[in-house]
UniProtKB/TrEMBL annotation, chains A, B:
Disordered: region residues: 1-25
Compartments where found: Cytoplasm
One cellular component (GO) term of this entry: cytoplasm
Tagged with keyword Isomerase: no
Record EC number: 2.5.1.18
Gene3D superfamilies the UniProt entry points to: 1.20.1050.10, Glutaredoxin
BP GO annotations: glutathione metabolic process
A Pfam family assignment: GST_N_2
Feature: compositional bias, Basic residues: 13-25
Domain GST N-terminal: 48-129
Record-level Gene Ontology MF annotations: glutathione transferase activity
Quaternary structure (record): Homodimer.
Protein name as annotated: glutathione transferase
Length: 271, 271
């Protein structure tokens, strides 16, 4: 996994750590650090922090990235570039035989699946309760959305991006317009449900405040933006929701999406 | 929803209730009671119990049914026959605009998605902790499986049943052998992962004891049995796991699967 880019963020500093930082460069910083993401390396020698293996072009990875950053949970990011097949190296396969990102490691405990990682982090790191409420009915609303998400928002927004950006980039062939139209129609149905079911009478998907469900959802609906397509363009209700999410997580939203914006801008520049 | 069959099960009796039962037949028992499912009607006049809307030919519905019965959570079952389109009646659509089962109602709180319902019931009804452990790492293992389940065990076992049983029954056309072979191959891959990832070093999917994850999974791998296909036939490791699940939930396993067994037997009799 030598090619992986290592980043650390949001680490609470102690005097002890500061001292060590001055004496010696961080042992874990093996490769370049992205200034764009405004993250800083600090020494991990004295304590273990959460490690996450992410590709920020992957929607569920961005959701995990946002939760960690906006809650200042001490963590290290190891970038696993899917386009370079870094998820298929023997080292990564050992970590996650499913070869998927995100993966989280917390003091030896390895966990896959963004849904599970977000809920684990919320429980373990004592983030503000609204992220994953403890009250059974409120929690059930989050579990209900996340279960629904896997077969709705997740595949449908992803498919538009795959057809419009990934497949043409990988094969050199033009966009399959017929399949794209069908995918957009399926996505429309999902967006309708997000509006009429989940946001019908409340500002966030699962209630009055932001939860991990909003993170999973917003990162999916942002994905077609990589192909310069804003799928919420004609949906003011969902636009307002996205703005609320963006405000609630402040700069961590754009930090997580920097790679997607860069992709969009590169594609625009080529045209 | 007049056509729905109403069943009640596992209600804890109090002396007060017994008295009322003697005086008056249960107000909620509007239609036939299935003796096969060994359920009994009791009066619901004095208290509200969980109501679940199920079709026991649906895998996630069976998982909910098993959890309720083997933990003796007081509940009422309303059968929503998908084959009769009872999930599309105005009354049911009002309850769940997604037109899906299972749906749970607990004292006015309506919840969809089996994954969320199982976790809510485990939290709210104080079932033995092993069903959905509170310790963060153990709980995360259950959340990890349930997230994975939605795009693996769930669609792949279902597809085999759809191609082999549902489509021929609905269209009268023979089984599409090419599609069935591809579906069986995808399912094989999922079963490999269940063995090598989840059951590698433990008796149940998420640890040493049964959890809601095992219920969701076992109900899926049972589904092709409706077409007389035991997909675990040549998989002793998964067979042992299924037996463990079956033992752990005792008669509630066969109660939930009675409708599937009946379908299999009817199909066999026709051949």
């Amino acid at each position: 996994m030598a090619a992986m880019q290592l980043l650390t963020a949001g680490c609470r500093k102690t005097p002890k750590k500061k001292k060590k930082k001055k004496k010696k460069p961080p042992a874990v910083c093996r490769s370049s650090v992205s200034l764009q993401l405004k993250t800083i390396c600090v020494s991990m020698a004295t304590r273990r922090v959460v490690q996450v293996y992410l590709d920020l072009l992957s929607q569920p990875c961005r959701a995990v990235h946002i939760l960690l950053n906006c809650n200042k949970i001490p963590h290290t990011v190891r970038t696993v570039a899917l386009r370079k097949g870094e998820n298929r190296t023997p080292e990564f396969t050992k970590l996650n035989p499913m070869n998927r990102v995100p993966v989280m490691e917390d003091n030896g405990f390895v966990l896959t699946e963004s849904d599970a990682i977000l809920k684990y982090l919320a429980a373990k790191y004592d983030v503000p309760e609204h992220w994953y409420p403890r009250q059974p009915e409120k929690r059930a609303r989050v579990d209900e959305y996340t279960a629904w998400h896997h077969n709705n928002t997740r595949p449908h927004a992803a498919k538009v991006f795959i057809l419009e950006v990934l497949v043409p980039a990988q094969t050199g062939s033009p966009v399959d317009e017929g399949r794209l139209i069908r995918a957009l129609s399926q996505l429309d149905d999902t967006l309708d449900k997000l509006e009429s079911m989940f946001l019908r009478r409340q500002p966030f998907l699962c209630g009055d405040d932001i939860t991990v469900a909003d993170l999973l959802a917003v990162c999916e609906v942002m994905q077609p933006m990589g192909g310069d397509r804003d799928i919420l363009k004609e949906r003011p209700q969902l636009q307002r929701w996205r703005s609320r999410v963006q405000s609630a997580v402040s700069e961590s939203f754009d930090q997580a999406h920097a790679v997607l914006y860069a992709l969009r801008d590169r594609r625009k520049a080529k045209l």
